[in-house]
Automatic annotation (TrEMBL):
It comes from Podospora appendiculata. Keywords: NADP, Oxidoreductase, Rhamnose metabolism. InterPro entries: NAD(P)-bd_dom_sf, SDR_fam. Belongs to the short-chain dehydrogenases/reductases (SDR) family. This is Dehydrogenase. It comes from the Eukaryota. GO terms for molecular function: oxidoreductase activity, acting on the CH-OH group of donors, NAD or NADP as acceptor; quinone binding. Gene3D superfamilies: NAD(P)-binding Rossmann-like Domain. The keyword NADP applies. One of its GO terms (biological process) is rhamnose catabolic process.
Length: 272
């Protein structure tokens, strides 16, 4: 299998692409020759992450100028139905192309809360971000891929979670949204197959990102989690990069759609 150029000449959009899993996928796509437009909220706390991402992208391009894709970024809130179409249009404009090849719906939030004390605002915000946001972005990408790409086609990846398959006492508002993303990918695979659009879900296990850094801060909790994972460690965002490239590449996964790819170090099969 070639180490580079698996996505050469392709164009992608990635939501939540400046931090965590989205950032790792963005850098992997760039290294494989894909031009990427990332969405972010443009919060003051996130700007250092954006600056760092831009610097890494520049370093990649300087090291391999002929094989590295280009990076662009656009602020926007995925809860707004207008954000998805705007990101698609921005990507096509920035990279002077009429084709969108890849969409990674990654943006999401997770705030742990006790079910009996969970307020309506937190529930609504989680659903609107994780599920509604995924729907709007995926729909916008699919409309471009089905109606305007010539020929039609593309790869859509929804970042779900192991939480789509198991329960979590402090995640009663979160796990249903990730199950929803998985279901969305299964249903869009059925709806969009006739256009040559592949839709698959990535299901990360316990990955150390800004979403769970507080939960894993304690040494006791970290050791407990590592003890449940057959590979003996919690994941890092880069662990999702290769699987995302696989699902994005027609060469590697051209006959894969409606699938769920669990990337968890073996945690799911060892839950007992």
């Amino acid at each position: 299998m070639p180490a580079t150029n698996l996505l050469a000449g392709k164009t992608a959009i990635i939501t939540g692409g400046t931090t965590g899993i989205g950032r790792a996928i963005t850098l992997a796509f760039l290294a494989q020759g894909c031009s990427v437009a990332v969405n972010h909220l443009d919060l003051e706390t996130d700007r250092p992450h954006l600056t760092s991402l831009l610097a890494e992208a520049t370093a990649l391009a300087e090291a391999s100028p002929s094989t590295t894709g280009r990076l662009a970024h656009l602020p926007g809130d995925v809860r707004d139905p207008a954000t998805g179409p705007a990101l698609v249009a921005f990507a096509l404009s920035q990279f002077s192309t009429a084709r969108l090849d890849i969409c990674v719906s990654n943006a999401g939030i997770c705030t742990f809360a006790e079910f009996l004390d969970l307020d309506a605002a937190l529930f609504a915000n989680t659903v609107r971000t994780n599920l509604d946001g995924a729907f709007y972005v995926v729909q916008a990408a699919a409309r471009q891929m089905a109606r305007h790409n010539a020929p039609p086609g593309g790869s859509i990846i929804g970042v779900s979670s192991i939480s789509a398959l198991v329960g979590g006492a402090g995640q009663t508002h979160y796990t249903p949204t990730k199950a929803g993303v998985l279901s969305l990918m299964q249903s869009t695979a059925c709806a969009l197959g006739r256009y040559g659009i592949r839709c698959n879900a990535l299901l990360p296990g316990t990955i150390r990102t800004q979403l769970n850094e507080e939960d894993l801060k304690g040494e006791e909790k970290r050791k407990y989690m590592e003890g449940r994972i057959p590979l003996g460690r919690t994941g890092v965002p880069a662990d999702l990069a290769g699987p995302a490239v696989f699902l994005a590449s027609d060469e590697l996964s051209g006959y894969v759609t409606g699938a769920q790819l669990l990337v968890d170090g073996g945690l799911f099969v060892n839950l007992q």
